[in-house]
Amino acid sequence: QVDVAAMVQLFGYVDVTDTAFIVAVLSIAFNPFFWNVVARWEHKTQVFSQVLGSPHAACYCLGTVILLLNCVRSHCFTEAMKSQPKLEGWDCHWTYYSGLAISAVGTLFVISSFLALGFTGTFLGDYFGILMEEKVTSFPFSILDNPMYWGSTAIYLGWSLMHASPAGLLLTAVVAISYTIAVLYEG
């Protein structure tokens, strides 16, 4: 039997009807939906490659849009945390530095994934016909599948802990769920 008292207390700090929170949830859910729909559409039609003159130009354009959308998502996430109360018991050095460590590990996974895959490998180049010569199995792919997704999730988790934010923790769960759905869709 699960004791839900801690969960009830935690979510008592979160106003899910707050506009900033709703916008954050929508931006989190929109990003993987957007890039998967656009990439699959390109794979079927090659419209972006034709309009932009090459698959590489189209992939770089989509990658730039994805990066900009990630900036918007991070901003919305931060604004949602700022609009909600902190959990006083977590507003301490131990939680802050734990969150910083988790964010650092997440950043390591994201950056090392990008370095292993390159820009076109990271930003769905395979949907544009830009294929890698072989599957990447080096770090961080030797440690876990989809390290960029889980690294990004860890960054948000750490950010939430650093801000002692129950809203941030709930939004981090939304990030994890969105990436889990994306992985199932992409697989």
Automatic annotation (TrEMBL):
Entry EC no(s): 2.1.1.17, 2.1.1.71
Compartments it resides in: Endoplasmic reticulum membrane
Keyword Hydrolase: no
Name assigned to this protein: Phosphatidylethanolamine N-methyltransferase
Catalytic activity, reaction form: 1-hexadecanoyl-2-(4Z,7Z,10Z,13Z,16Z,19Z-docosahexaenoyl)-sn-glycero-3-phospho-N,N-dimethylethanolamine + S-adenosyl-L-methionine = 1-hexadecanoyl-2-(4Z,7Z,10Z,13Z,16Z,19Z-docosahexaenoyl)-sn-glycero-3-phosphocholine + S-adenosyl-L-homocysteine + H(+); 1,2-di-(9Z-octadecenoyl)-sn-glycero-3-phosphoethanolamine + S-adenosyl-L-methionine = 1,2-di-(9Z-octadecenoyl)-sn-glycero-3-phospho-N-methylethanolamine + S-adenosyl-L-homocysteine + H(+); 1,2-di-(9Z,12Z-octadecadienoyl)-sn-glycero-3-phospho-N-methylethanolamine + S-adenosyl-L-methionine = 1,2-di-(9Z,12Z-octadecadienoyl)-sn-glycero-3-phospho-N,N-dimethylethanolamine + S-adenosyl-L-homocysteine + H(+); 1-hexadecanoyl-2-(4Z,7Z,10Z,13Z,16Z,19Z-docosahexaenoyl)-sn-glycero-3-phosphoethanolamine + S-adenosyl-L-methionine = 1-hexadecanoyl-2-(4Z,7Z,10Z,13Z,16Z,19Z-docosahexaenoyl)-sn-glycero-3-phospho-N-methylethanolamine + S-adenosyl-L-homocysteine + H(+)
Entry keyword Iron: no
Organism (species): Dicaeum eximium
Topology of this chain in the membrane: Multi-pass membrane protein
GO molecular function: phosphatidyl-N-methylethanolamine N-methyltransferase activity; phosphatidylethanolamine N-methyltransferase activity
Principal location listed in the UniProt entry: endoplasmic reticulum
